[in-house]
Amino acid sequence: MTDRPTLLLLPGLLCDPRLWKPQADALSDIADIVIADMTRDETMSGMASRALDAAPEKFALAGLSMGGYVALEIMRKAPERVTRLALLDTGARADTPEQTTRRRDLIGLADRGEFKAVSPRLLPLFIHEDRLSDRPLVDVITAMADSVGKDAFLRQQKAIMGRPDSRPDLPGIACPTLVICGRDDVLTPIALSEEIAGLIPGADLVLIDDCGHLSTMERSEAVNAALREWLAR
Known about the structure:
46% of the residues lie in helices and 14% in strands. It contains 9 helices and 6 strands, in the order βαβαβαβαααβαβαα. The chain has a 6-stranded parallel β-sheet, sandwiched between helices.
């Protein structure tokens, strides 16, 4: 009988463990779940080191959005510790000037004491337009942002803006890799996931219908099924 794997989950910008709750609940029968703290560091390297410190020697790794950026940093730091990799609704490129400008606008809002206005601005980018009236979902997303808070948000944005272009590293990833993206993700469009899957040898790509950026919450059953199959390989 083999030991149960550990699955290390990395949340995205303004997200906390609630982002991964559907997966933690659904996959706890086959894996030990660890959810990393992505709120205390202002560099990708710092976030990756903190996550590695929380993980056992060997683990499966999954990250969504900013968590995907951190996952790729972990693959640079300690690829020998990662048994399999899942990248959800993320990209491998560095920030574009347009993205950096948008981030600086949001940072300006927060610095002016209007942090509460950040989440409503991001919400249409986070979830499918048909889910904007889903009050329970919206309430959880808003609550996560409030819990992360202004200071951590500023640290996260600094880290994201400073992230490297990870595309040159992708062909060297040798562990079983799953790439997941909502078909209607406007924040990290499917072309970015297709690019990642095309550069990582043997990677599988799963596109989820009627789904925006926060796929783990929006279409949790489809994400759970894909992750379960990936873990069982």
